[in-house]
Design a protein that fits this description.
Blueprint lengths: L9 H22 L10 H11 L4 H5 L8 H44 L5 H61 L4 H19 L11 H18 L1 H17 L8 H15 L1 H6 L15 H36 L12 H30 L4
């Protein structure tokens, strides 16, 4: 397979982090309120065709057994590609042997011109080694061309299958939907399970107090939007790592930017979603004993432990601000060949600390209300 030399541009990376979540949020809001459980989607089918069609995922999605046809062809493609990769290494070694033999011939030729003893014998030996090295290189090149041809044939077969399925997929989706259309009873059971799941998900061993204050309302709303926004960054990771796997194992072209881009993205996601996670009571906490306390006792414990929480938030904000300011002052970039900008990443430390601190303030006021109210 040919090599891929694509390197993700910086503007595309940052543009994707901004635009992909916005597009995903729009799609989710547009779909909200419609019945999607138990139904097939042509969009999903084509997404699977595009991203996993080489192993027949789109066929399995529509419950078609011909998806198994893709698997042996793809396995053969991987095995052939391993041979190509080995042949490339052997060709490299053979070329080195040719270079060494050529150097020995040149040195023996100079020795012969200077009339040194035994120069002719050394020259003949060097020329023989040169012929042997060239023959070895030709053999390795022939082996490489053979396995490369097999790999190309397997790839062409998969591409032909995919092109045919691109036209057949709407009909396959329609037939599968008609064949597996859920009954009203099945839909009712699915809705009941969904409602039960949502009810259990809201059953938290925490204190919930409704406070009619615009500040608290906007803090909850902002953290909700930010948490939802950064959660859709995970979609980008699917495509980036999908590209990395294909580039590495099918085209022998591992990247130097895929891993770096993703661990920076997930680092930003981790700190930016801290406020949202705190709002949803999803941070790790030990409540083996805490869950058995009365409500006022829980509120008192929360107020006391909030001291350490606010210390952490303030320290995180201050250190994050210092890191970000230092990074902006020199427009810091990474030390890798990709040289992505580091200063936006470090700015999220301070931003995430602010969001976490604001949600901590709302939780503190709610705990104080519970603690000092006469009736709860």
């Amino acid at each position: 397979m040919p090599h891929i030399t694509f390197v993700l541009p910086h503007w595309l990376y940052w543009g994707g982090l901004i635009l992909v979540p916005l597009f995903a949020m729009y799609i989710v809001r547009k779909q909200r309120g419609t019945e999607v459980d138990g139904t097939l989607s042509k969009r999903i089918a084509y997404l699977l065709w595009l991203c996993g069609g080489f192993i027949g995922l789109h066929r399995f999605y529509v419950r078609n057994v011909l998806g198994f046809v893709y698997i042996p062809v793809f396995i053969a493609l991987l095995l052939f590609n391993v041979q190509v990769r080995n042949a490339v290494e052997q060709i490299s070694n053979a070329k080195n042997e040719v270079s060494i033999a050529d150097f020995d011939v040149e040195r023996a030729q100079k020795a012969l011109e200077k009339g040194r003893d035994g120069a002719q014998q050394k020259l003949d030996t060097a020329k023989q080694a040169m012929v042997t090295a060239q023959q070895n290189l030709d053999e390795k090149q022939t082996i490489h061309d053979k396995w490369f041809r097999f790999t190309s044939i397997a790839a062409i077969i998969i591409v032909i299958f995919l092109l045919i399925d691109a036209f057949l997929l709407p009909g396959l989706v329609r037939k599968c939907a008609e064949r597996e259309k859920p009954t009203d009873e099945q839909l009712a059971i699915a809705r009941a399970k969904k409602e039960e799941f949502e009810r259990l998900g809201k059953a938290e061993a925490t204190i919930e107090v409704e406070v009619k204050n615009p500040f608290f309302h906007w803090v909850d709303k902002i953290n909700g939007y930010v948490g939802e926004y950064v959660s859709f960054w995970s979609i980008i990771a699917v495509f980036v790592y999908y590209y990395e796997v294909l580039a590495r194992y099918l085209f022998n072209s591992p990247t130097n930017w895929a891993h770096e881009s993703m661990f920076l993205m997930f680092g930003m996601q981790y700190v930016m979603a801290a406020g949202f996670t705190h709002r949803e009571h999803a941070h790790v906490h030990v409540d083996v004993i805490y869950q058995y306390f009365p409500v006022r006792m829980k509120a008192a414990i929360n107020v006391f432990t909030s001291i350490f929480f606010f210390i952490f938030c303030i320290v995180l904000f201050w250190t994050g601000w210092v890191f970000a300011a230092d990074s902006i002052s020199v427009w810091e970039v990474s030390f890798t060949e990709w040289a992505i900008q580091y200063w936006p990443v470090k700015c999220t430390l301070a931003a995430g600390a602010v969001l976490l601190l604001l949600d901590g303030i709302t939780k503190l006021f709610k705990d104080l209300i519970v603690l000092f109210e006469k009736r709860v």
